[in-house]
Structure formats: structure tokens, C-alpha cells
Write a structure and sequence with these properties.
By secondary structure, the protein is an alpha/beta fold.
Length: 624
């Protein structure tokens, strides 16, 4: 244990300095590593706010964020501290007071949350603060209107609840040690006896190291937001079919399917193909005469529960089983008539001999014994719900809901982005332009002037991807300089998912010979469903495109998609000079390449010319 005295603690605040708005406390936890804030009046500690207090406040379990009913330790009771920490594994520090009741510092346990756990805390705060519930509500409503079959739900193990299945102090201490070591490191460091216990019948000499190699060889690609996995085809233990983890014993002839949906526990992140939950569930179904094919919709990561549900063909006579560690999702899904809750699986470790030996860093990263118990409990409940398979059944797949998926990561990214740029509470008519400005021309200025007159606030998203002749920094500066006299314009980066390589790669290949233009829908779906929603954008402006085939097609796609979201699409004629020649950034780049400053003057505003000449002057100075 370690005592840190008050003078060395940064996270101490006078109660008189606390703003009435609690948001500053929440934001403090979002962007700092402290797990507890201390609020004092002189020598006395009046309140604390821990990460857990923030959780309870945002979950609406507490009306106040300041906790005035907290545990503190007196100097004379230090001998009891170790016992307290052992019984409260999520608490790592306590306020320390002297005999006069003065707050003199904090006492820390020997353990602390590793960085990835602290990142998880901040991530959960973001989920609550940025209203992940609404995100899941929208997806759930969409899916449940589409799917009329049976949905089963269960909560994946919660570490705090599952921890109670460890009955000895030795087991608990060992869990503290395991939780700070990554799963792959734990696997690589196993001795032979530990390997035999962890892998069971799959054991062979060196299995753990070979498994880790296979795991690290997994490549993840995205198709319209859905994550698909693949490897080089030489894997010993982890294989994929069309981007999804295989169920090695699947019933290929079955007309009906059971879809297992959820994060790494469903995927079977740390077991072989013959040890996943899907494998065992298929075994139980087949052995008992149920003609269903189990499909593994698991993913390596959270918040992808719906990625396949909305993009794959699912028949109303199929069964969907959703597991999550997100309580909001399960709570929300319980409300639908065709759902059945299977419970919280945290207690499943009571049935497992030496449960500590089948977990890695969390009770959700488990070996075959836990995977089998999960599958067994699922089967015991769902087999009584299975419809009769005796009748003849011919599968007729419905069309999928859509061909894209927008994950919570993207939604949260732009909610936070809007807050950081002061764009989340704009009022009036909000317009937007997304432009590369490579470089900033009179044509760009013309479009901005036109748009700014039509709206109360005009947001200029400058394409952030650094894949143009001019760097993002240079393009950003040119736009800021070129629009500094227009009061209602806000110039910001476009962010990671707004005309980027991940959403619209061909935009950055326009100068190549492109035979076929890929779908541009995904980029625009993100703009409409996320960006415009976060910033209350109601119209988007573009300049017409007479020459560039890719941009012209993008404008045509916008014309079709934006009105579906009540976003007005406004296209204005491209600016001409001398009544005959279009202003074009590509022409400017060619003139600059040839150092033809005379021709450039017709195309560029004075601010861009000034910036480029200053830039050239700096380059000359550096090269002397």
C-alpha cells in the first residue's frame, strides 16, 4: 500500500469553486486518468466523485453526482485497509483523515486498474453521456420491425458479479493478477500443465503459442461498415467462412438457422473452432434431433451486435440469440413481444470446477469449459421453444434490411466531435459544405458566399484525409484565411468518416483512370444519419461538376439520398472566369507545377496567393 499526501494530489477541488453544471465533472473523467475527484472545504473532505459515481449518475440511479456518503480511513485504522481492498476489488484508493478529521491524503492499494481498463471506464462514460441508448433503440426498432421470429437474450458475465464465484482469498488475489495481463500474453506464458487444463482435448505440445500466432494472423476488413475476418488459410485453430467464424460441425442441410450474436465470447476469441459456443450449441441441437444450422455472428469487439442482423438475409422462422455486456441493449430488447430473456450468465461459474483456470483477464475471455456451459444453458432454455421441425419446410430468405452498418464508434466519434467544436447546440438553419480545397480557389469562395447567405450557420468540413497534393494543414489554413471575413462560417476538419479512405476511397483516386465507380452510399449514410443529426444540419451545398466523373456521380448520389433524410440538396453552377473557363483546382495545380503564376492569379483569391507565396518563401529559406 502507498500513502499519497494531499499536497501531491492534483484532483482536489474547493466546493465553492464547483460550477452548478455537472457536465464539467463528467468531461473531466472523459479526458483524464483520475479515478476519484476530491471536494474539500478547508481541511475537511466534503464529497468525492469516483468513476462509479459517474456511472450511477449517468445511469440515472443517483440524482446527484457528488457523493457525500463515502468511505474514508483514519490513520489509526490503517491495519484494516488491506482487508477492505480485498473485499472491494474495484476500489483502489481511499481518502485518509487524521485524528482531527482533517483530510490529509489518500491510501492506495497494491493493485490498480490497467490502462485498458481505465480506457474502458472512459468509453462507458462516453456511451452514457452521448446517449448510446438512443442508438440501440433505433437499431433495435429497425431490426424488430423486420424480423418476426424468436429472439433470445442474455447478459454476458459481469466481472463484479462473477467475482463472487471465487470463494477463497487466493483465487481473488490471482484474479487481480490475471486481469492486468493481456489474454495473449497469458496464453503464451502457460506451462504444460496449464495448457492441458486450459485446452482440454484440443491440447497438443505448443498449442498456446500456435494459437496466438493464428490469432495475430487474423486480418479484419470492412465492407460498408461491417467487419469481416480472414486469415491466410493456414490457421490451425481459427477459420472463417465469408468473413465470419466457422461453426465446424454446422448442419449444412438444415433449412432453419440459429444466429449467435455478440462480442468476443460469442466469437470464441480464445478457443479453437471445435470449442466455441456455436460448436457446442450445434452439437446439442443435432444430438437431440433439432434440424437447425448454427451461424456464428460473433465479432472481435463490442458494439457490433447488429452489423450482420441488418445486412444479412434472416428468415422469420430462424432464431436469433443476442448476448451482450451492454445492459442498455438487453434492457431495451426485453421490451419486444417476441423476445425471451435467458438471464445474467455471471453465475455460470458456480457450476465450473476451479473457474479461475478457465478465464483469462475477464470472465468474458474464457476457455472451452465456460463456452460449453454457456451453450448448455442456452440449449436448455430454447429447446422447449423450438417450433416443430417435422413439417416440411422450404427456406425463402428475405432481402436484408440494408447494405451498410454504422457502428456506435462512428456515432460516438461525431457526437464528441460536435461537442469539441461547439457544434452540438447550434440553432437556426444549419448548412454544410464538404470540400477538399486542393488548393482553395475562387470557385470555393463563390460557393461558400452563396451558401452563407442562405443559412444561419454554415459548417465547412475540410477533408482531413492527407492524400492530396496539398497537406491537410495547408488546405485548412487556406480555407480559414479565405473565409475569415464571413461571420457565420465555421471551418472544421471533416473527421475520420466524412469523405475519407474508409468511406469513399475513390475520391482520392480521381486522377487515375477509373473504369467503374464504387458505391458512394456508405459515406452519405454516415453524413445523413450521424453527422447531420449531431449538428442539426438541414441542407448541403455543392458546386455542379462538369468534368470530374467521380465527383459528378457523388453529387447524383447525394441528390437521391439526402432528401430521404429531409436534408435539402442544393447544387449551384460552377464559377467561370472570362465567361468561358471553369474555375478548377486541378488546373491550378498544373499551373503551379509549371510555375505559371500569371494564369494562377485568375483562379485564386488573394488570401490563397499570399499563403502559397509565404509557403514557397519558407521552403526556399529552409533549402538554402
Amino acid at each position: 500500500m502507498e500513502i499519497i499526501y494531499r499536497k501531491d494530489i492534483a484532483a482536489i477541488f474547493e466546493t465553492k469553486d464547483i460550477p452548478q453544471d455537472d457536465h464539467w465533472i463528467i468531461r473531466y473523467f472523459l479526458y483524464n486518468c483520475d479515478e476519484v475527484l476530491y471536494f474539500v472545504e478547508g481541511n475537511f473532505l466534503k464529497a468525492v466523485v469516483s468513476v462509479g459515481d459517474v456511472f450511477r449518475y449517468l445511469e440515472k440511479k443517483e440524482k446527484k453526482i457528488l457523493n457525500t456518503n463515502f468511505t474514508q480511513i483514519s490513520e489509526k485504522d490503517l491495519s484494516n485497509v488491506q482487508t477492505f481492498f480485498l473485499g472491494h476489488p474495484t476500489i483502489h484508493e481511499l481518502p485518509l483523515i487524521n485524528s482531527a478529521g482533517h483530510f490529509i491524503g489518500i491510501i492506495k492499494s497494491n493493485s490498480k486498474n490497467p490502462e485498458y481498463v481505465r480506457d474502458g471506464f472512459r468509453d462507458y462514460i462516453k456511451r452514457l453521456y452521448f446517449d448510446q441508448f438512443s442508438y440501440y433503440q433505433s437499431l433495435s426498432n429497425k431490426f424488430m420491425e423486420y424480423f418476426k421470429g424468436q429472439v433470445f437474450l442474455f447478459d454476458l458475465p459481469d466481472d463484479n458479479r462473477a467475482f463472487k464465484t471465487l470463494h477463497t482469498s487466493y483465487e481473488r488475489e490471482m484474479f487481480f493478477k490475471k486481469r492486468i495481463v493481456s489474454p495473449l500474453v497469458q496464453l503464451q506464458e502457460m506451462n504444460e500443465a496449464e495448457e492441458k487444463d486450459y485446452w482440454g482435448e484440443a491440447y497438443e505440445p505448443g498449442i498456446s503459442k500456435k494459437f496466438v500466432k493464428d490469432f495475430l494472423n487474423i486480418k479484419t476488413s470492412e465492407r460498408n461498415g461491417c467487419k469481416y475476418c480472414e486469415n491466410n488459410g493456414l490457421s490451425h485453430y481459427i477459420t472463417f467462412d465469408n468473413g465470419k467464424r466457422v461453426v465446424a460441425n454446422k448442419a449444412k442441410e438444415a433449412e432453419r438457422k440459429v444466429y449467435l450474436v455478440g462480442p468476443c465470447t460469442i466469437f470464441g476469441a480464445y478457443v479453437t473452432d471445435e470449442q466455441t459456443m456455436g460448436y457446442y450449441l450445434q452439437k446439442f441441437l443435432s444430438q437431440n434431433g433439432h434440424s437447425f444450422e448454427v451461424v456464428n455472428f460473433g465479432s472481435l469487439g463490442i458494439d457490433y451486435e447488429f452489423q450482420y442482423l441488418v445486412t444479412e438475409c434472416i428468415n422469420d422462422n430462424d432464431i436469433v440469440i443476442i448476448a451482450s455486456q451492454n445492459k442498455n441493449l438487453i434492457s431495451l430488447m426485453k421490451q419486444y413481444e417476441n423476445t425471451c430473456y435467458l438471464g445474467d450468465f455471471s453465475d455460470i461459474f458456480e457450476k465450473i470446477h476451479n473457474p479461475l483456470n478457465c478465464i483469462l483477464d475477464t470472465f468474458r475471455h474464457v476457455n472451452y469449459r465456460a463456452e460449453k456451459e454457456f451453450a448448455k444453458r442456452i440449449y436448455e432454455v430454447i429447446h422447449v421453444h423450438l417450433l416443430s421441425e417435422e413439417k416440411e419446410y422450404k427456406r425463402e430468405d428475405k432481402k436484408p434490411l440494408q447494405n451498410y452498418f454504422i457502428s456506435w464508434d462512428i456515432v460516438m466519434y461525431y457526437k464528441e466531435f460536435a461537442m469539441q467544436h461547439g457544434l452540438n447546440n447550434l440553432t437556426g438553419v444549419i448548412g454544410a459544405i464538404v470540400m477538399n480545397c486542393n488548393p482553395f480557389t475562387k470557385g470555393h469562395r463563390y460557393l461558400i458566399e452563396y451558401a452563407a447567405e442562405k443559412v444561419d450557420t454554415l459548417i465547412i468540413f475540410v477533408v482531413e484525409e492527407d492524400a492530396s497534393a496539398f497537406s491537410f494543414h495547408d488546405r485548412m489554413e487556406m480555407v480559414k484565411m479565405g473565409t475569415s471575413d464571413i461571420d457565420n462560417v465555421k471551418v472544421i476538419p471533416s473527421g475520420k468518416y466524412n469523405i475519407s479512405k474508409s468511406t469513399f476511397a475513390q475520391y482520392f483516386e480521381k486522377e487515375k483512370n477509373i473504369d467503374k465507380i464504387d458505391s458512394m452510399d456508405y459515406d452519405l449514410r454516415i453524413f445523413c444519419e450521424v453527422i447531420a443529426d449531431c449538428m442539426h444540419i438541414s441542407c448541403r451545398f455543392v458546386g455542379e461538376e462538369p468534368t470530374d466523373m467521380v465527383t459528378r456521380q457523388y453529387n447524383e448520389t447525394m441528390k437521391k439520398i439526402l432528401p430521404k433524410y429531409d436534408i435539402e440538396f442544393i447544387e449551384i453552377p460552377r464559377l467561370k472566369i472570362k465567361e468561358r473557363e471553369y474555375v478548377s483546382a486541378s488546373k491550378v495545380r498544373q499551373y503551379l507545377k509549371n510555375r505559371d503564376w500569371k494564369s494562377v492569379l485568375d483562379f485564386l483569391p488573394a488570401t490563397t496567393i499570399e499563403y502559397l507565396k509565404n509557403k514557397e518563401g519558407e521552403t526556399v529559406k529552409r533549402n538554402r
